[in-house]
Amino acid sequence: MTGDGDSLRVSVELPPGASLKMDSGGTQMAMPLWLFWSRLAASHAAQAMEARPSDAYLDAVSMALQTPGSTIDDFLPTQEQPAPVGTAELDASLVAVVASALAIDGLYGASKSLIRPPPSTASRPRRILETLKLGFSVGRDSTRWLPELDWLFRVRDLAVHHQECLRPAVITRVTSQTVVVSATEVEMFSAPNACRAASLCAEIISTCLGNPKRATREWAEDRRRGLVASSSPDADPT
Questions:
Q1: CA–CA separation, 231 vs 238, rounded Å?
Q2: pLDDT tens-digit readout, 159-200
Q3: How far is Cα of residue 31 from the mean position of the Cα atoms in its chain?
Q4: In angstroms, rounded to a whole number, what is the distance separating the alpha carbons of residues 191 and 197?
Q5: Are strands 19-23 and 6-7 parallel, antiparallel or unpaired?
Q6: What long-range pairs does 63-66 form, CB within 8 A, spacing at least 24?
Q7: Contact 133, 142 (CB under 8 A)
Q8: Which residues 6+ apart lie within 8 Å of 147 measured at CB?
Q9: What's the whole-model pTM score?
Q10: Mean pLDDT confidence for 79-105
């Protein structure tokens, strides 16, 4: 490669999990972004749990609100840490839920050309599940996955195609002393739902990659290596 008459070195960066093909036709790469979405889902679900206020903190808030002249600190137990300021739990949960759906959808999209499912007019999550059943030996897990996929893609759609409008407030937390009422989005994108989504995502991916059928065997083996590489903090581009 040249630029302004000076020779430049060419460095090929291969992200973890990506595949590379170099021949007379040039350099080509394929990126399994769904592996990265699955990693983001897991990490943000963990962040959501870390950011979730404790029951003791919520009780301290409700006590302070009904006690004039007091502060939350007046009712926090010794050694209890204040909750993170802002919407850290909601932020991380939103990413975890959407990333989980994108990872599963990406797994479906990446393997569909190998599986070649018949045309279907079913909903997106049901098309995904039927295709994965054809390409991987998932056994009875598929029965349990179906309602979870329906839930995940419903919540994902509400996030991606969100409508800002008034909705009835809902109960989002209940402790031994306090009932917390907030927006429906707070309940949907909470730490428990983030973990629910990320766990489903991890289970589907690990089950499929660990139990390929003939059409997907070689592909799944390559992706298993990519999953390990993309999850490793020590992985470096080559």
A1: 16
A2: 999 999 999 999 999 999 999 999 999 999 999 999 999 999
A3: 18
A4: 10
A5: unpaired
A6: 63/177
A7: yes
A8: none
A9: 0.88
A10: 93
Please give the full DSSP string across 135-174, using - where no structure is assigned: HB--TTHHHHHHHHHHHHHHHHHHHHT--------EEEEE
- Choose among 123, 107, 122: nearest CA to 207: 107
Q: How far apart are CA 158 and CA 187, in angstroms?
A: 13
What is the rounded CA–CA span in Å between residue 130 and residue 146?
10
Taking the CA atoms of residue 110, residue 111, residue 112 and residue 113 in that order, the dihedral angle to the nearest 10 degrees is: 90
Q: For residue range 51-77, what is the model confidence (pLDDT) as tens digits?
A: 999 999 999 999 999 999 999 999 999
Secondary structure class of 171 (helix, strand, coil): strand
Q: Which helix (H) or strand (E) holds 6?
A: strand 6-7
Spell out the residues 6+ positions from residue 132 whose beta carbon is closer than 8 angstroms to its own.
107, 108, 111, 138, 142, 204, 208
CB 75 within 8 A of CB 64: yes
Give the integer Cα–Cα distance in Å for 115 and 214: 10
In this structure, the dihedral spanned by the alpha carbons of residues 185, 175, 89 and 144, taken in order and rounded to 10 degrees, is -70
Which pair of structure tokens corresponds to residue 5? 């008459």
Residue ranges per domain, the chain?
Answer: 32-79+86-212
